[in-house]
Design goal:
Blueprint: H1 6-14, H2 18-23, H3 34-51, H4 58-87, E1 91-106, E2 114-123, E3 129-134, H5 136-141, E4 147-153, E5 156-163
Parallel strand pairs: 3-5
Antiparallel strand pairs: 1-2, 1-4, 2-3, 4-5
Helix pairs in contact: 3-4
Amino acid sequence: MVDTSTERFDRVAADPEYIAAQTRTIERPQASGYPVLVAAAFTVFWVFLIARMHGMPGVIRLLFLGLGLAAGYRMVTAAMRVREEQRAPVVPVVAVVVRDRSDVSGGGREGQRATTSYFVTLQTRDGTRAEYAASSALAGRMAVGDIGVAYVAGNSVVEFTRFDA
């Protein structure tokens, strides 16, 4: 059982390093607009390619056009979501790590790469719990039961300062 008592939060607040952790500035890489431009260029190229398919039945051309536009739309919206996440303000939150998990996808076929995503669930003093994405390096430094200042940006934890409390 993870200790989420208010006394632990009080010990963190009494720690001399707490104020420095609360006011710490987290530097993050600047969001690039290139993924959005690449996705838009893919969509325009796909539409142009379909328009040039002479001799193919109109229904088939429309099907390919619809598939290309749908794929392009998903790529553009995904790239824009990443940019918004990178621009989200970093908010320091005192919390306890109450759960961690990883999600592996892909890798089912020969030559296919597997991707692992990491998540941590944080609980604040008032008992509110929320799950956040974390990089593999950060997830490796956080353990269930740790208490500290989590620097949250959007749906991700971008840094964590642990306290012995």
